[in-house]
Specification:
2 domains; globular; alpha/beta; two-stranded parallel ribbon; 31% helix; Arc Repressor Mutant, subunit A; single chain; four-stranded mixed beta sheet; 5 helices
C-alpha cells in the first residue's frame, strides 16, 4: 500500500502528514526527534484528497473551529503502546491527564515512565493528543516537538494552568 505525504505550514511550524489509501498514518510537527527524514517509500503528493482534508481539519483546529478530529487514523505499535495511545486519543479538548493517570487506566499503575516512552513514540500527534499529558505534579513534562509547542497547544485549548 502506498504512503503519500505532504508538508504543510501551520502556526506552530511545518507539519508532515502521511496517509495510505484510507487513513492518516503519520503526523509529525517540525522538530519531532523521531522523524529525522522522510522514509524512502513515502511519495510526495500535493493533490491527495485525504491529505488535503487532514490539512483542513488541522487548520480548523488552529483557528478555533474544531475540537475533535474526524479523520480515520492507523497506528502500528506494541500492544502496550497501542493501549496508551488509545487512552490518549480519548482525552477531551481542553483537558489533561497525567502519565500516572494513564498508567492506572491501562491497569499498569507502576508504568508511568513507560507510558511516557510510549507517548513519545506517538506517530500521529494532535490526532492522538499527547500534548494533553502532563506530570502528576502538574508540570508540562516533555514533548516530542519541544515544550514550547506543547505549551502553545495547551494554551490554544484553554488548559494551560502551569
Amino acid at each position: 500500500m502506498n504512503i503519500e505525504y505532504n508538508v504543510f505550514d501551520f502556526p506552530i511550524g511545518k507539519i508532515t502528514i502521511a496517509v495510505n489509501d484510507f487513513t492518516v498514518v503519520a503526523l509529525h510537527i517540525e522538530g519531532d526527534r523521531y522523524l529525522k527524514s522522510i522514509p524512502k517509500n513515502w511519495i510526495l503528493n500535493s493533490n491527495n484528497e485525504l491529505l488535503n482534508q487532514t490539512y483542513r481539519e488541522i487548520n480548523e483546529y488552529f483557528f478555533g473551529d474544531r475540537k475533535v478530529f474526524d479523520m480515520p487514523i492507523y497506528t502500528e505499535g506494541t500492544d502496550f503502546q497501542e493501549s496508551v495511545w488509545d487512552v490518549v486519543k480519548r482525552i477531551p479538548f481542553g483537558s489533561t491527564l497525567s502519565y500516572s493517570d494513564i498508567a492506572y487506566k491501562i491497569n499498569k499503575p507502576k508504568a508511568a515512565r513507560a507510558v511516557g516512552m510510549a507517548i513519545g513514540r506517538n506517530p500521529i500527534c494532535l490526532f492522538i493528543p499527547c500534548h494533553r499529558v502532563v506530570t502528576s505534579s502538574g508540570r508540562l513534562g516533555g514533548y516530542v516537538a519541544g515544550i514550547k509547542i506543547k505549551e502553545y497547544l495547551l494554551k490554544l485549548e484553554g488548559s494551560y494552568k502551569y
